[in-house]
Amino acid sequence: MAADPNARTPLPVLRLAAPARAPGETMTGRIRVTVGGDPIDVEVTVPAGPTPLADLLPVFQGLTDAVVARGVARAERNGRTVSCRAGCGACCRQLVPVSESEARALAGLVDGLPEPRRSVVRERFAAGVRRLAEAGVLDRLTRTFTAAGEPVRELGLAYFGLGVPCPFLEDESCSIHPDRPLACREYLVTSPAENCKAPSRESIAMVELPGKPSAAVMAIDRAATPGGWVPLLLAPDWAAGRPPTTTPATGPAAVQAVFARLGGRAG
């Protein structure tokens, strides 16, 4: 029998899971999320009960990777090639916004490092904060993410001009690559890598994504700050002494909310 040329090839199912605190306390379901007109079928396994959004980050990381892969495929079809490579860490000196849940997860990641690495990474954070304070950028940054101060673009340029590396940057590569923030996953360019050392709107060609999972997570996350985000460099200090004060949603409800915010219809 001849194949129907109009038949639609079934979409592969993206399988994502978040760890549960105890075996058997999970729920598995399928969701179709449509991002930029591009449907993604996702099978999600998450804790069934109330679950902090930070515990669901593996799901959102996998979803982000899938969205980014679609953006990269479109770029390649248009003859463009991603120029980001290990060892090219210019973008790792930018101001990176993370959601509250990511800030807590990053703080926990640092706390869980073995010594002496934990102390080394903590000192990198402290050194970066001191550099921002000396340059007068720390006050500007704090005012912005706590009270919607000056435009983030201008502040980001001032931050980048200081050349403060991400505390997780080692040998110009990300040392926590599997756990890197959603915003970092979304940042890819097709312009020459050397242009990233002095970026401008004219010199940088970003990979256009059909959606931004990082923004969806920030929008759903319980926002303790009016801007809904925390600078990565300040994440450990911000998270210290700030235990969650509200009961989190169930795992399925939280995932549905983020997927819906991203632009798809959950069902």
Describe this protein's structure.
By secondary structure, the protein is an alpha+beta fold. The chain has one domain (40-261). It has 9 helices and 7 strands. It has helices at residues 57-77, 100-111, 117-134, 137-147, 152-161, 182-186, 213-220, 235-239, 251-262; strands at 13-17, 26-35, 38-47, 97-98, 169-170, 173-174, 230-231. It has a 3-stranded mixed β-sheet with strand order 1-3-2, with helices on one face. Strands 4-7 form a two-stranded antiparallel sheet. Strand 2 and strand 3 form a beta hairpin. The two termini are 34 Å apart.
Shape: globular
Q: Assign a percent range to the helix content.
A: 25-40%
Total count of helical runs of at least 4 residues: 9
Mean pLDDT: 87
Uncertain parts: 1-9
Total beta strands: 7
The count of domains is 1
Q: How do you describe this structure in short?
A:
The chain is an alpha+beta fold and 267 residues long. It has helices spanning 57-77, 100-111, 117-134, 137-147, 152-161, 182-186, 213-220, 235-239, 251-262, and strands spanning 13-17, 26-35, 38-47, 97-98, 169-170, 173-174, 230-231.
Describe the SSE topology.
Blueprint: E1 13-17, E2 26-35, E3 38-47, H1 57-77, E4 97-98, H2 100-111, H3 117-134, H4 137-147, H5 152-161, E5 169-170, E6 173-174, H6 182-186, H7 213-220, E7 230-231, H8 235-239, H9 251-262
Parallel strand pairs: 1-3
Antiparallel strand pairs: 2-3, 4-7, 5-6
